[in-house]
Amino acid sequence: MFWTRRSKKAPAPSDGRLPAARFLALVREALEEVAPGFTEGVVIKDDLMVSPHDWAVVLLPPQHSTGRHYDLVATPDLRLPGQEWTFADCVTAFSADERDTAASWAQTTGACLVELVDGRGHFAERVAPGDAGGVPGWGLIVSGAIGFGHDVTENRKLQGALLLANVLPRTAHTFTADLTSPHVNGVKVFYGGAPGAVQAEVRVNGERHEAASAALAALGLPEPAAPAVARYYALMLPLPENAELFADRDEDPADHADHGDHADGCGCGDACGCGGRIDPEHPGFL
Predict the structure, then answer these.
(1) pLDDT tens digits for 61-73?
(2) Which superkingdom, per the lineage (predicted)?
(3) What is the CATH number of the domain that holds 135?
């Protein structure tokens, strides 16, 4: 089993959480919106979602004592040994509709999973060490930033500020020594809250990293004037071991037509009118 903490049977939901299979069904729907066709043939059984192409997502038993938290672990290939090709993330319900919660995972962590499997730069940005926003010694796969809140202006402000802050290259010195996997490490960047009660958090491989979170707080991002939060996710792969994943590719322009025109990885196709910028009233990309 790719994640040894997985229980043999999905636990009963607590604190208002949906049953595991129901929430994973929402995750599947949200992933399909991000990358049409990616979830074809997926099977969900209890707390495990498996693709016929061997990628998988497992929903862990509740890791938090309060709130509607969902902890998920993903792997691009079940055939790979051990946990060194897995990455973890947690999402929290910010609305009554758990579809929004599932979408917050799919549009960030899920987009990184799709890009790791797909490998063409359609769904998340691939950043080499020498690129703007790069981290020396590491290749990055970085999702778009999504925002939550009832004020459109505050959502957009927070999303933009989080991206423009270049959080990973400015805070990497505090946590790269703790990236223990020789293959893939997951990093979540989260910022926001209510006026006077803002939270800055960086999670490394599923665990809050105190030094990195303090470094994020010290960057001086604007405090929202109304309740709002923003987050994005990144995979960090050590180089040169994974250099081939970040080598220049000569791509056929026709390949991009299969996934719409959105270079930022919206993945919603030609019928979408978002212009690559999903409505900030809902989780979306900038």
Answers:
(1) 876 655 678 999 9
(2) Bacteria
(3) 3.30.500
Domain boundary among the residues 71, 95, 123 is at 123
The reply to whether omega before 283 is within 30° of 0 (cis) is no
Strands 69-75 and 56-59, sheet pairing: antiparallel
Tell me what percent of the chain is helix, strand and coil, each rounded to the nearest 5. 25, 25, 50
Confidence (pLDDT) at 282:
32
Average pLDDT of each block of 10 consecutive residues along the chain (286 residues)? Answer: 48 71 98 97 97 97 73 95 90 85 97 95 94 95 93 92 96 97 96 95 96 98 94 96 71 35 34 32 32
167-to-232, 233, 242 alpha-carbon distances in Å: 10, 11, 22
What SS3 class is residue 70? strand
Q: Distance between CA 185 and CA 179 in Å, rounded?
A: 6
- Domain ranges, residue 105: 1-123
Q: Answer whether residue 254 is part of any domain.
A: no
Euclidean distance between the first and the last CA atom of the chain, given in angstroms as a whole number = 36
Q: Which uninterrupted H or E stretch holds 58?
A: strand 56-59
Two structure tokens written together for 13? 């939901």
Residue whose pair of structure tokens reads 């990455």 in the numeric block: 87
Answer yes or no: are the C-beta atoms of 213 and 200 closer than 8 Å.
Answer: yes
pTM of structure: 0.82
Can you read off the two tokens belonging to residue 30? Answer: 């949200």
